[in-house]
Specification:
With 220 residues, the protein is α+β, with helices and mostly antiparallel strands. The chain has 2 domains: 82 residues; 89 residues, Heat Shock Protein 90, CATH 3.30.565.10. 65% of the residues lie in helices and 14% in strands. The protein contains 5 helices and 5 strands. It has a 3-stranded mixed beta sheet with strand order 2-4-5, with helices on one face. Strands 1-3 form a two-stranded antiparallel sheet. Helix 2 runs antiparallel to helix 3 and helix 4 packs across helix 5. The N and C termini lie far apart (64 Å).
């Protein structure tokens, strides 16, 4: 019969401890906590995406509606110009009015397209998971993009106020920091029942850049 030395006994002890009910329970609790954390992240992402979809759908609907009016207006203008040409008359005033309407709708469509482009830029900035290296960035740029995306959750109900101080660039993982800010902002907005305000502040304390996000909600 062979007996293990001190090292072998220690290994056996660790193996028994790893297989004990307490260690198994601890491992199961950690796994459950990880699953809950993942589900919470997915739920936050789902709410954010729903808000972004709404934010994009609204201007797209405006563009489609304006396009229909513009097409009908162009058809009317074409008919009026043909009638004027057949009668050797100058272009009628109605045609000029329709052209002004089309010009106005085109300006509205440009604003709608800029709004869509702005949301997409912010979404791309906040989802750059390929940025694996630390970078020096302006934290206010990250906050503005996070505000633009998270505000879709409570626009019209919750006012957003920013008080940005004079702070230097910070070294961070931009996409991870952005996700933290988005989650905090969404939570702040959801903590407010009815109307309220979310305030985002930045300041420099000694050598540290501080960011605070507060809301007028009742809290937990």
């Amino acid at each position: 019969m062979e007996f293990g030395g001190p090292d072998g006994m220690a290994d056996d002890s660790r193996a028994q401890q790893a297989g004990s009910p307490e260690s198994r329970l601890k491992a199961e609790l950690e796994a459950a906590n990880n699953r809950v954390s993942q589900l919470y992240t997915m739920a936050s992402l789902g709410r954010l995406l729903a808000g972004v979809v709404h934010e994009i759908n609204t201007p797209i609907g405006s563009i489609f509606s304006n396009n229909e009016v513009m097409v009908r207006s162009l058809e009317k203008i074409l008919g009026l110009l043909r009638e004027a040409e057949a009668a050797s008359a100058p272009p009628p005033a109605k045609a000029l009015q329709l052209l002004e309407t089309i010009q106005s709708l085109a300006a509205v469509d440009k604003i709608a397209c800029e709004r869509i482009s702005s949301v997409i830029r912010s979404l791309k900035m906040c989802s750059r998971v390929d940025e694996a290296d630390l970078k020096k960035v302006d934290i206010h740029d990250i906050l503005r993009d996070a505000l633009k995306l998270s505000a879709t959750q409570f626009r019209g109900r919750v006012a957003v106020e920013t008080e940005f101080g004079d702070v230097p660039e910070v070294e961070c993982f931009p996409h991870l920091l952005s996700q933290v800010f988005i989650n905090l902002l969404i939570n702040a907005g959801q903590a407010i029942e009815g109307e309220g305000k979310v305030t985002v502040r930045t300041r420099l304390e000694e050598d540290e850049v501080c960011v605070s996000i507060s809301d007028t909600g009742g809290g937990i």
